[in-house]
Amino acid sequence: MHLLPREENPRSPARAENPRSPAREENPRRKSHQGGAASGETQDVSLKVWCPQNQIDTGAMEQMQKAFEAEHPEYKITWTTEVVGEDKCQDEVLKDVGNAADVFLFASDQLPQLVDAGAIAQLGGETEAMVKNEIAESVVDTVTQDGKVYGIPFTHNTFFMYYDKTLLDESDITSLEKIMAKETAEDVYNFYFESAGGWKLGCYYYGAGCSIFGPEGNDLAAGVDWNSATGLAVTNYLIDLINNPKCAYDGEITVSELIESHRLGAWFDGSWNYELYHTALGDDLGMAVIPTFNPDGNDYQLLGFYGSKAIGVNAQSKNMVAAVQFAGFIGNEANQILRYELSQQVPANKAAGSSEKVMADPLATVLVNESNNASVAQPSNSVFSARYWSYAGAIPTEIRSGEITKDNAQEKLDAFVAAMIAE
Predict the structure, then answer these.
(1) Separation CA 92–CA 412 (nearest Å)
(2) The pTM is what?
């Protein structure tokens, strides 16, 4: 099963000495070099692009590259297009920034590491203005660090709930308690637990009011409060949930093999796997905002991490002007609509996202509702990124293995909090 973009063990690379910042595109009709478009000559440009497999399979990237060429006759472009998923982008870029792609698609939680390494260009000029003017402020924040914009968000990156309508109805899916209490056949699982390396795990703790580095995720002095009485209650709840025989556990069986035979009631995932699930279930596939849960006698709305998928430019690109222009082009309103039409990625662009076609789409509706009503901004700082994924990802793994029990949960949470403290 494809997991949401997530870094299990992100690096903390040294800062590059001279990152290019900001990257400001020139007007292609006013070239600074001699000749160029004005004299009918063309400039040879090589652009390497990294994108996920779905942008290749759907033909989206090829269509956008051809359209960019048509709009920029001043360039003779040699394209190199390689498959690197948003979840793997940071790792691949930081292996060798100088030989990485000129333009790449990445998950916004990777931004601190890319900035610290001097690997991603700060955007300026028309591209920065487009991001700030055409995309909602809350989404722009996912690609902004220290007031500087480093990416062009093209879709929302959060998850919601899918369910099988033959097993659960709308009255069952409002709470996790109702989902788990539903009577199903012996070989049917009511719920599927997947932490996605800590990404989906966070919805339980944040839903109950716990946080990491304060409500905004940027107050390192505030520390982590997951070892509070509330955090302990959530952990005990997860111990019961993960060990419930009606709860399937990621790594032991896949969602795909369960839903094909109608053996799974509900699970959390993102829009990128919609086609996979819809192919298996057709009209029996339901979608909803993630539910409430009750770990301590109180009902809490689960809150999933919210981020974006975005387009970035390599700070060491040898063709910076063309790279920034291409990044802006594939991130514009028209191409966000094209990407949505070909791969169901709901546009982050305000005008594209509010188009009649998108607004009439149940998938888009549930994603927007999830983002507005059941999500929390994912902390975006290097300390969180460097520590959270490995330490938080271990919590459900150790619950499943029996290393974390109700007898030692407080001790384990104390150790988690101590490991997260910024030195």
Answers:
(1) 33
(2) 0.77
Would you mind telling me the total number of residues written for the chain in this entry? 423
Residue 288 tokens, joined: 């909803």
Q: Which residue has the higher pLDDT, 273 or 210?
A: 210
- Residue type at 272 in one-letter notation: W
E strands in 1-111: 43-51, 75-83, 103-107
Looking at residue 377, its pLDDT comes to 86
Question: CA–CA separation, 54 vs 38, rounded Å?
Answer: 38
Q: What pLDDT digit, counting tens, does each position of 400-423 carry?
A: 999 999 999 999 999 999 999 866
Element (H or E) spanning 55, and its range? helix 53-57
Residue 312 CA to residue 322 CA, distance in Å, equals 13
Tell me the Cα Rg of the chain.
22
Q: What SS3 state is found at 392?
A: helix
170 touches 366 (CB < 8 A):
no
The residues near 8 (Cβ < 8 Å, ≥ 6 apart) are 197, 389, 390, 393
What are the pLDDT digits (tens) for 266-313?
999 998 888 899 999 999 999 999 999 999 999 999 999 999 999 999
What tokens appear for 389 in the block? 């994924």
Rounded Cα gap, residues 184 and 207, in angstroms: 27
Q: Can you read off the two tokens belonging to residue 9?
A: 């063990």
